[in-house]
């Protein structure tokens, strides 16, 4: 099952840790990894772990089961006494703090766990995501990970049922804003959109490419709602608005520098003037976005050329050493990728 973007990365790490813990608990410990109980921890560490779990579990009683000593961290697992969820906490020995806490619920606990307002908001978001395909979830987690670099850090996440690679995030720190990501079999997607994506790849990269992966994304926070189409190698990609059906971004693998030093040398001075840049980008801008660059000004930063005009959509493009625009992205004047 493919995982897309940072939204899946953090959870993939947690899922790996959980699987590793389960495996280690069933076999003799080796190397730096040992399995023990919470009684082996100091009262200070135990108190911090209890506080972290209580922050998410509220008044529900809970029990610590096992402690995995991973060297620099302890992975501490347990369960709520009412059986609604299991949990996992990670304690950083070096920084003397709880790095993350995750409560894992089965979807059947949703009515009991979620406040009515939040539950209704989640169900409404699922319903509006795709009228033709209702997402199904088999589990949901409550996660608090205050020291990670990416957002969200305090959230709920719902996971697709079976082999469905889908997720719904509720960002608690951002007024419960919701983002949804779901992968689709290409055969289930409107063929017009698939052909549009393949045409965009061809018009940008100059070769015929078949779409092999399709996914749909929606984010309440920034008002975005779009499809992403990729080839089998995930090297060519196209973003198309789910509302407008308009191509919003195309990226093709045409970079040709050998190193960071080579890149810096190649783009130390602008390759194009403003006029030359508009000429070089004009054909692709018209084919991909039905867009004329007449009246646009150009900002140049290394290999990135940004075309702007007051009240109009903004176009950003990246060139390689040959001056070919291999990546182009459009931001509508209202800023929403739809």
Brief descriptors of the model:
17-stranded antiparallel beta sheet; disordered N terminus; 28% helix; 2 domains; elongated; 7 helices; PepSY domain-containing protein; signal; 33% strand; alpha+beta; 338 residues
- Which residues form runs of ≥5 with pLDDT under 50? 1-31
H/E series: HEHEEEEHHEEEEHEEEEHHEEEE
In angstroms, what is the radius of gyration?
24 Å
Which bin fits the share of residues in helices? Answer: 25-40%
How would a textbook summarize the main sheet?
Answer: 17 strands, antiparallel
Gross geometry: elongated
Structural class: alpha+beta
Enumerate how many helices there are, as a single number: 7
Separation, N- and C-terminal Cα atoms: 26 Å
Number of strands: 17
Mean pLDDT: 90
Our count of domains comes out at: 2
The proportion of residues in beta strands is: 25-35%
Protein name: PepSY domain-containing protein
Signal peptide: 1-24
Keywords: Signal
Could you give a short description of this structure?
With about 350 residues, the chain is α+β, with helices and mostly antiparallel strands.
Describe this structure in words.
By secondary structure, the protein is of the alpha+beta class. It has two domains: 1-175, no CATH class; 186-331, no CATH class. It has helices spanning 5-26, 43-57, 110-113, 116-129, 191-205, 260-266, 274-289; strands at residues 34-36, 62-69, 73-80, 85-92, 97-106, 137-144, 154-160, 166-171, 177-184, 213-219, 224-230, 237-241, 247-251, 297-301, 304-308, 314-319, 325-331. The chain has a 17-stranded antiparallel β-sheet, sandwiched between helices. It is elongated and about 70 Å long. Mean pLDDT is 90; it is low at 1-31. Residues 1-24 form the signal peptide. Keywords: Signal. This is PepSY domain-containing protein.
